[in-house]
Amino acid sequence: MLSNSLVELDRAHLVHPVASWRGHEAAGVRVIASGDGATVTDTSGHRLIDGFAGLWCVNAGYGQESIVEAATRQLRTLPYATGYFGLGSEPAIRLAARLAEAAPGDLDHVFFTLGGSDAVDSTVRFVRHYWHSRGKPERDQFITLEMGYHGSSTVGAGLTALPAFHTGFGVPHDWQHRIPSHHAYRNPAGQDPAAITAASVAALRAKVKALGGPERVAAFYVEPIQGSGGVLVPPPGWMAAMRAVCAEMEILFIADEVITGFGRTGPLFACAEEGVVPDMMTTAKGLTSGYAPMGAVFLSEHVYATIADGAGQGVVGHGLTYSGHPVSAAIGLAVLDLYEGGLLENGRRAGARLMAGLQALADHPLVGDVRGRGMLAALELVTDKAAKTPLPAAAQPATRIFDRAWAQGLVLRAFPWGVIGFAPPLCCTEAEIDGILARTRAVLDETLDDPDIRAAM
Ligand code: PMP
User: Fold this and answer.
1) Does the C-beta of 421 come closer than 6 Å to ligand 1?
2) What Gene Ontology molecular function terms does this protein carry (predicted)?
3) Is a pLDDT exceeding 90 seen at residue 2?
């Protein structure tokens, strides 16, 4: 009864993110009622392993008492303090300091946001101010990768290079440019890591040249692993090679670690494992493990000092009411304690088991590619492995695969082009990882029996 009325209220009033609005009205909402560890339960009592950690964010899992206690304590003590007017709060200051300590290289300065999109927006503002401060405002062109995702704001959606985020929205802007992704499985340069890296380096150099040379280019953005593009993993050394090209041309190198940060790929930050120190880094999601909204932009000493000195005694006019929100920051501190207290280690163990188990699914007739790192992985499904033929649109991969998994008791991400994404909470037990794998195999078998798939094989 409860869920029926919620379905009607939802249909009438709640606009859902990145959804077919009409499709959602027809399908109706599924309401998640509670979560515990890596498991969620819907309002009908159906229990599911959350193989996607909400939206790749609940890294610590649900129901972590230490986080609840930290948030409650902070709500009672001081639910809000502004960072304007030279004011601050203890949790925001302590979290900034701990993050600076944990971040690679000299990313020692932290600006807090509400999530990933406004973190990316903040970097765009900081990049522009940096070049203004250096007396080079003509460095105003931005480059990203095809298949990249950098948020859903008007600026970020233009840096994002997924068609659904552009169509009808009047983006990308004319200062936002793209080069091809390193996507190994479907790369025209082939699957050889050195060839892929060489192709990306050449593409970046060519794009910079086409834009009028380095003197016109402000920044280059990368996700260490492209998440929303379908978990696309660059070859080892790729990021370092791209970073080196940017350093040579003095183009700011921005790592968007909104998904990859906070243990998702193993270490606290994915850049570190590649030995790369970006000029700026964006994070969100695992920062608070989804227990409250928060993002963070990390600025290197050089970027920070240039902007600070450029403004002198003048104001750097960028701010948010909820920047450094004390409750989110208290949660961030509690989550960091969990990461350092064994969660990262558990995630690394569970990630190795997940990747090995997914590799073992490569024998399935539909699995064309298995990729990922740590607790971030994907299967790319095809109807012909040699020709790498994508699943037919008639088989509605996004909805049917998601529905099959749901019925099996598993939440996963089903991309419309036939990619299945996994990003389980780092607290997963071995049994939960095995549960994800067994249910995934069942989903693959059911998908193989889909008449629309059969017809395409
Ligand atoms: N950057 C990346 C790499 C992301 O994956 C996301 C969200 N999935 C964002 C930015 C935007 O974050 P948010 O949804 O918190 O605004």
Assistant:
1) no
2) transaminase activity
3) no
